[in-house]
Amino acid sequence: MILNGVDHNLHNSHTHASKSKSPCPVVLWFSRYKRYKQPYHALIAFVLASKRIPNMKMIIAGKGTKILRKIVDNLQLENVEVLGEVKEKMKAKLMQQAWVLICTSRKEGFGLTVLEANAHGTPAVSYDVPGLRDSIKNMKTGILVPYGDIKALSKALTTLLKDRELLQKMVYNSLNWVTHFNWDISYKYFERVIESVLD
C-alpha cells in the first residue's frame, strides 16, 4: 500500500505542540459539509462532554459548514464557533490550537485530515470506520469508538481532555506517527512499484 503524504512545510511536526495549544480545551471538527460526515453527531457528543468539562470549546470549520451556524445559534451553544470554509494557513492554525480532532464520518478513503492534525500534536477521537481506522492508532494517536455510538464518542472526548497524562502521550505519539507519512517517501515507493511493473 502506498501511504498518503502530509505537507510538512504547512503542517510542521517540529512545532512545540503543547506550547501552541489553546489555554482551554478545544475540540475541532474539520471537514466538508456532507451528510455522511455527520457533524451533528460531533455536536451532540460535544454538548454531552461539556457537561463534565464546562470550559471546553468546539470549532467547526470546512467548506459548507456555515449551514450549521443557524442550528448552533438556535440552540444557543455559546461555546461552539462555526467558521465555514477557511484557507490552508488558518486550517493549520486551528489544528495547532485544538486539543482534539473529532471525526464522525461513516467512511473515509483515508483520514488525511487526521494526519494533518497529528502533525500539530493533535490526537483524534473517531468512529471506528474504514479509512479512519487506518490513520488512527487506537489508544496511541487517538481513540476509536463503535460507529454510531455518540455516548462513547462523548466519553472518549471526556477521557482524553480530563486525563492530561494520556493526552500528552497521544500528543507525543501523534507527532511520531505522522513522520511516516511523507510525500517524498511515498513518491519513491510509487516509483519503485512502477519500475517493477515495467521490468
Please provide a written account of the structure.
- The model is unreliable at 186-196 (pLDDT under 50).
- Helix 1 (39-50) crosses helix 6 (150-162).
- This protein has eight helices and six strands, in the order βαβαβαβαβαβααα.
- The protein is of the alpha/beta class and 199 residues long.
- The longest helix is centred in the C-terminal third of the chain and has 16 residues, at 183-198.
- The chain is globular, with a radius of gyration of 17 Å.
Can you describe this structure in just a few lines?
This protein is of the alpha/beta class and 199 residues long. 41% of the residues lie in helices and 14% in strands. The radius of gyration is 17 Å and the shape is globular.
